[in-house]
Each structure stands twice: as C-alpha cells, then as structure tokens.
Amino acid sequence: MKRLLVFLTCLVCALCASVPARTAEKTVIHLLSTPFGTGSYVLGTALESIVNQGDYPLSIAYAETPGQAYNVNKLNADAAARQNTVVTASQGINWLAEQGKKPFPAKRTPLKLIGIYTYTATWLVTGDKDIKSVADLKGKRIAMGRIPQVIWGYEPDALLRNGYDDDFYKSLKIQFVGTSEAATALVNGQVDAATIGGYMDPVSGRFSPAPQTVEVLASGRKLRHLDWTKDAVEKTAAKDIRLFPIQVPAKAVDGLEAPIWIGADLHGLFAHPDFPEEYAYILAKAMIENIEAFGKYHALGGLMSRAGLVKGFSPENIHPGALRAYKEAGIL
So which residues are the signal peptide here (predicted)? Predict the structure, then answer.
C-alpha cells in the first residue's frame, strides 16, 4: 500500500509538471472601425491581427460601424466603452465633433490620437483646357462627395468657402453627390470639375489613388489637376476644419506634371481621453514595433512610417499613454 501511494503521488506530480502553465488572460479591447472596404477598415483588421498574434497583454475584438461620426458619438455617449474601446477617426471629424457641426447635432468631446494610419489627399480635377487654377472655376459646376463623407465633401467645400473670396464661392454650382458619382459626372461631362485624391505618406511622398481617382484617370480624358495653394489650405485651417498643408509630388498620378498643395486629413486610431493610459501605451507600442508589417495586409499599409504615426499632431492632442510610447521610441 505504501509503495502504491508513493507511485500515485509521483504520477500526479509528473502529470502536473507536463501541463503547461495557463497563459495569462488578455484584456479585450474593442476596435470600432469604418464600413467594409475602406482604407481604415483594412488597416484596422491588420492591427487586430498584429496585436492578437503578438506578445501583448491585450487582444483586439474588431467591429465594422457606419462610419467615423458614429464612432465619436459612441464614445461620447457610452462611459463604459471609453474604458475598453478604441475607434477609427480623423483630425477632421474630431474638429467637427468639437465644434458641434454637421453631422453632429451638438458639441462632442474630441478624441485623442493613438496612431495615424493614413493621410488623405483630395483636390479638384478638370477636363476643361481653359480652367488652369481653382480661381478659373468661378461660375462652374463642381461635383464632390456628400457632406458626411468628410474628406470628399465637407473638406473640399470648406477649402472653397474659406480659401477664396465670398463672391467666388457663391458663384459655384456645387453638387454633393458622392465619391463615385462625382467621378462619373466628370467623365460624362456633366460637371466642369470633381474631387479626386487618395492616400499618402507625407514623409516619403508615396501616394496611392482612391478608387474614384482610378476611374477618372482611366477615362482617357486629358485632365488638369488644380492646386489648392498653400495659402488657401492655411486660411481654411485657421477659420474652419483643421487641415494639414502638404504637397502631392509630381507624377504621383497620371497627368500631374508639377507638385500641388492639398489640405491633408489624418486618419487613424483614436480613444477617448478617459481610455486607460497603459492600454494606449501598449497599442501605440504595437504600431511602432510592427510598422512594416502593415504593408503585408494592404498596399495602404506600405504608406505607413514611424514618423508618419504622429506627423502633424501636437502632443496635447495625442493620448498621454501613446505619447509616452512615442517619446520612448525617439519619434517625439
């Protein structure tokens, strides 16, 4: 009996030793993205895979939403979500929320940056050989995205309203029809100009055209790309939505023979100011450490860079936890 007890004791110890220690349970962070197919949606899924497969104490649960305005409203309305949820948003949508401008019915608390995914660049293009600058559009028909499509609707309209004089703006026949609809209208000759653009890395100047831009460029029409001018962008940023003046380099798209100034918006991962600092630090650190991995998931990820994760953002608008990660990495 004694030998049997010794044997059973040794067997139990051996079995216990063979069972690996249970992995510490990860804290789940919810990521609210944008509609399926958007650049932010794809890069958000990339971040989910990077964090969940990495040696981080967090895991990401990803969800598609109607868009950035929904995301900002969600964190403003739901106190519990502020503690465990990050979202895709932009500098532009943040400004509209802070001001209580459409699509927001009232002022919202602006979110804090964790890391930038992409910079969006939009400008006007025309097939009319007599239109050589934005000023030549006086009295002309312009098609652009809908106002809730902030980059493609609100922002180009704001540049025309604030970057030029009132008489010029009042003369314009602007149609807020949607991104692909604006491209089709220009190709079919129904308007004189339309918004096109895409995504870029302001550090290297690398550019990737948006789908509607590809459609317009593939039409075979001889096009002229119109420079917003740095002055117009700075006037707009001072009086209206916060845009970042950068130049799209020559040859970035077919027919662009010289650099043009555009007002860039910055899209990325944001959190409410109440979001725990340690979580923000870990997520920013994951983006910094895996910056090159984003390009394996989508071409837009190839436009991301370490310096680009915060370029154009002042420290007070970066989440304190993320700010610590960028300072440790020598980026700020």
Answer: 1-23
